[in-house]
Design goal:
By secondary structure, this protein is mainly beta.
Length: about 1450
Amino acid sequence: MAAERGARRLLSTSSFWLHCLLLLGCRAPGAAVARSGSAPQSPGASIRTFTPFYFLVEPVDTLSVRGSSVILNCSAYSEPSPKIEWKKDGTFLNLVSDDRRQLLPDGSLFISNVVHSKHNKPDEGYYQCVATVESLGTIVSRTAKLTVAGLPRFTSQPEPSSVYAGDNAILNCDVNADLVPFVRWEQNRQPLLLDDRVIKLPSGMLVISNATEGDGGLYRCIVESGGPPKYSDEVELKVLPDPEVTSDLVFLKQPSPLVRVIGQDVVLPCVASGLPTPTIKWMKNEEALDTESSERLVLLAGGSLEISDVTEDDAGTYFCIADNGNETIEAQAELTVQAQPEFLKQPTNIYAHESMDIVFECEVTGKPTPTVKWVKNGDMVIPSDYFKIVKEHNLQVLGLVKSDEGFYQCIAENDVGNAQAGAQLIILEHDVAIPTLPPTSLTSATTDHLAPATTGPLPSAPRDVVASLVSTRFIKLTWRTPASDPHGDNLTYSVFYTKEGIARERVENTSRPGEMQVTIQNLMPATVYIFRVMAQNKHGSGESSAPLRVETQPEVQLPGPAPNLRAYAASPTSITVTWETPVSGNGEIQNYKLYYMEKGTDKEQDVDVSSLSYTINGLKKYTEYSFRVVAYNKHGPGVSTPDVAVRTLSDVPSAAPQNLSLEVRNSKSIMIHWQPPAPATQNGQITGYKIRYRKASRKSDVTETLVSGTQLSQLIEGLDRGTEYNFRVAALTINGTGPATDWLSAETFESDLDETRVPEVPSSLHVRPLVTSIVVSWTPPENQNIVVRGYAIGYGIGSPHAQTIKVDYKQRYYTIENLDPSSHYVITLKAFNNVGEGIPLYESAVTRPHTDTSEVDLFVINAPYTPVPDPTPMMPPVGVQASILSHDTIRITWADNSLPKHQKITDSRYYTVRWKTNIPANTKYKNANATTLSYLVTGLKPNTLYEFSVMVTKGRRSSTWSMTAHGTTFELVPTSPPKDVTVVSKEGKPKTIIVNWQPPSEANGKITGYIIYYSTDVNAEIHDWVIEPVVGNRLTHQIQELTLDTPYYFKIQARNSKGMGPMSEAVQFRTPKADSSDKMPNDQASGSGGKGSRLPDLGSDYKPPMSGSNSPHGSPTSPLDSNMLLVIIVSVGVITIVVVVIIAVFCTRRTTSHQKKKRAACKSVNGSHKYKGNSKDVKPPDLWIHHERLELKPIDKSPDPNPIMTDTPIPRNSQDITPVDNSMDSNIHQRRNSYRGHESEDSMSTLAGRRGMRPKMMMPFDSQPPQQSVRNTPSTDTMPASSSQTCCTDHQDPEGATSSSYLASSQEEDSGQSLPTAHVRPSHPLKSFAVPAIPPPGPPTYDPALPSTPLLSQQALNHHIHSVKTASIGTLGRSRPPMPVVVPSAPEVQETTRMLEDSESSYEPDELTKEMAHLEGLMKDLNAITTA
């Protein structure tokens, strides 16, 4: 019954598709074989159309069990209806006499009572549906695999176990993969309910996490696969009480390599046990996985990772990390993701004529890479001379014949699955033109003559067809024009040719009209071909020429490749090569040529050989070479053999290790360092090093020690105090010991000094400035019990950090060279050891001017002129080499040709080493003197290219500088954090922010990635912060799904190949509120826009205390003064509003909904009607100014009142004004009316200081000084209550900061073009971008326009607040409409007149109507305030 219902369902589906196709012309997606369509017909010709013939449903892979029924679906569409048959394992099934398998009406295959046993599996296999339409063709479906689950077998069974309460436990139940879906568990003979704590892994294993007493009991697993259930062993799980002691952390189940197909789900098992209970984290390719916020990644019970809907990007190495606070363990596994074959390009239907060449194109993708085969009418296409596979997947058919018609299918398959797509080929009669433009599947040789023919005389046969050139693989044909058309300028020709005895004919067309020759390519040697030529004119094809019989030339038989080419190393410098005589060739082999080449080079050498073997001598030791052989006969060189590679034998090293150095650790040990011999001299794999050392006083008593070949340092211990030792090192291979280095000496300390801390400060520092140098001298630290390994001298103009030089601990003076005359240098001196650098000692000096000759007087030896004739210069040092030892150290070695052969220095000569880097380009040379033939240059910058040169000096004779050597120091972890970290909101996505930064100034190597840490708690431990990894050198990153209206803190850490650098300072950013749709995306209540450190956001509920003075302690005023002040404010406000109403029709601006929200918030907090700004602004809004395509646009909610020009930095709120004492309060009260009502252009400083009259701030973001915040967080250094304090913290920006600035539109596009910071005088609206002017001085007792007090100097906060950077906040290009200005005081008559003129020219009547309605609302608000 189930099978019949399934059949009826499929039949109804087929009927639907048939109606769909007949009525609407639609088709099934993804299963097309031939597309329907009709072609336009040429006059008088009948053109067959392509027939729709494709599968509606194809069979899919199916899993079944014994005794069940299976339906393999298949349905095809065609008119007439196709005949459906089935193949199993490539053989047609006889369904007529089969009582278990039957064909359903829609074409599906129904199998009842599936049979499956160990020795009889008649139903399991690969099935394929075949659809045939008589006189049309055949198509085949994809192949589907039917798998029958075998008999239940347990490969592992559960075992008795015990678990501590709260720990994890597992119970195994491994069965064959086909039966895993049929596994279930029982506890105490009852079905076990699975939940988030108790799960079954895909393998059948049971995982119990956070075990409780209720988990104890008897467990067994059951397999139910259609037959009788099979039970595993029943075992007991004991739950023990928590012992409250720690236990080792171990994996109960580790992940194993898995292979999955795109779209499947995968579970990577990972279960750990231990006390305390471990936590599991996952990483992929060294990147942390966020399983909490991801929808596709789920952390299952016990720690296993489930990935749903696997994609190709999920492939990689996964790390399971278990950590319980005491220890950490990890395991890893590789996930391989495969993809079923998919068609990038399917074959298309083709019209063609006989003799044409066509190509069916088929492009597929998949993983593993699919293989492609072609089927014609259900039969496999076997490649031949006329059916060829080209470009890997395309099918080319040459010389079409009528029998080539039919359906061609491209079948792609890999290990995951298979797919098919096809097209129809129709061959038209020669007198029927192909109905469309030439399709791309026609080859270039057969795309001509497709236009419909017209009636008229046809040309006769071409004359004198001859083969003018015959070769082995091509023939050139020429002919004369037909007799019917002797000129033949408009004739084209087709050359038909075929092999003698073959009916399939091919065609080649001439490339242009009038051309009377064609070259036929790709022929076979010594083969007879039949050629004929036909001419075509505009009426059609004419008569054919008589057949021409031509035989191609036989191909010259050259030797084939020599077989069995072998090569083997005979010695460290020779290789023997052998081969055999080639099996092909029609001439005797005359000689051979043996080619060989060193691997890694492109210079091939050869040698002539007459025998079948040859030994090549004089090769490099332990070097790989490649060999090939070419045989020669009388016709020339034959085919080369493939290359064979072999390496010469190894030998003892031919050179000593490099860069031997000694480091005295204490009184009884010396650390010895070295580098391997040069690669060309190693002569094999270095297996170890032999260290020999002896006391300098007892040279015959030598001690040896051996270290491994990968070790490049060794600590020699157990030495005597205060004793000089000699050391040398030799490299070893399996062949023996190479030459040793020269003896190098070092003396142990007399006593052990303390090196657990840095040295103390040097006891003195003296400087003596000269014209271009400064002589620095010093004395060591007073505490001689701390190890001093050297001194670091820093110097620079104005700063000691420009250059740093390190000198030996024995040195007490140094001359800083190549300085600028008349310059002020700051010099610092620090002693250092292996722990670090000590406290610096500072000194400063001014170099002398050029005219100062005292340098010559002081140091006669340095006099530029001397009466003694210049001696003959010495020979410069040669062979200068730079050996890189570390990130800041390079050893320079050289040779001196003026020394004896043993290069021993016996006189008083010394060498000067100079070095510099070319970045920056004007870097000066640094110098140091040495008395040996090497020098260790320290204090270099990591990952930097340096150039070095050496000169020698002996007495008054000096050489020129030697040839330069170059060396690049090794990389080091970044030593500075990423800089310029900024955070902005993403437009339209308030929960998404964009973090931008710049690379660290001291990257010390190529940056390979960044890590972004963010948290809502700036004081949280760093391992509690959320991590966002950034791969590569990207400088921006998006973070999504943040919480709205929440302050976040961000830190960034750079990474290179050596490790992680330091973190940047915390940067604060508050996400926008959800309901502020008209705000800028980064418009927070108290967010900052600067980049310096700022106090954290105190939140929208924070209320600054009303204080009676600006003292740091903020002592409050009496309640009586506060009430009196409120009465005065309300009274003045009422008078001001009445005057405003009279002139409102002419001068009021539009108000945005955003300002209304701000006013509502102010009313709810303070109960008084103090708007943001709260000052008079008697000027109309700044007009749009078109100047060099600059258009001023408002970018914030409220324009700032009272634009006054000043160069003084603007106080951001009342807290920023420099505190004054209480004695000034009365003066401020007395001046209040003049501030509000009688403003003039000469009172800028006075007006700028009042909170109610804050000037407009014209400051683009990019023009702000770094230390000046664009928006400040609230502070408790408040102004007196009389100074119009803002009503609530959320809107504590009287001047609007950047949010009330007007930016040029071009400025928004190019942040590099910034306007200067300025305030604008109120004389005229077009003067808002006037040149900044210096304001006249204000009253002597109070200057409110002073720069704001630095935040660090404010002491009013009682609790410690972590200082963080606040992100620069940009608008991301969002423009804002012009904003209204609240005008709470009466303007002067002259200004009112100007304002009326401006407003009349700027506003329409409907706008004024809206403003009148708004003013009525203001009056209602005012009445509510006065009533309260």
